[in-house]
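EI: anyone free to look at a 241-residue chain?
SC: sure, send it
EI:
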Amino acid sequence: MKPQNRRFRIVGGSAGRPTPSGRRFAFGRPENDGPPRRRAQQGRAGMISGWVFLFLLSIGAYVAAKLPPPEPPVTGQLRGSASASDGDSLRINGRRIRLEGIDAPEIGQTCGRGEAVWDCGAEARLRLKRLIEGATTACRLHGRDRYGRELGVCEADGRDIGREMVLSGHAVSYGLYRDEEEAARGEKAGLWEGDFIRPQEWRRSNGKADESPHLAGDWLELITRWLEEQVSAIAARILGG
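SC: here you go
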């Protein structure tokens, strides 16, 4: 038989007619089994990727929260004998300085200790007075707040006044000193011994001037808040999906 006259028979079908779909194979498996399995694999891969991304964001949020915020540009310095105006502001050479990063109870604000009520606003002022009394106070100024008050980080005898106020429980974190607030809460120091309303909330409910937390516009604070929001949103999508 001549080569050009040879004929071959197609097994499983006939010439000009497609092979039934049930007999098609893709990578050793019937084609009709492929899409559902691939969809399941893609679903598992997507969930794993979501958890990995969530884990990385959580690490980023934790690291950002632990990093000390960079100090804003210093706009001036003051040094001298200081007097306490209230629990979070003082005067040096006639200039009023709002202690940056803390918020203390207002004059006239009261707090609770069990059944007792105490004048936490006056106590905060007294605590600040004792910190600066007989010491030389030095302040690094970082501009002014929305009310024109100068913002500053101040030290007396080498001690950070804002940090000491928060650690003793006579003030709360207001952009700085988060770890110090947690330490005071754990020790039930000052305000944390009983019940109190945060000064910001007290001002709002008593018609006093409102103000935003210091350093709220700082890039590190914004990044930390964004990361925390993303972690919460992704976790909700994964758990809900």
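EI: Helices lie at 34-66, 120-132, 161-167, 178-187, 199-205, 219-240.
SC: 👍
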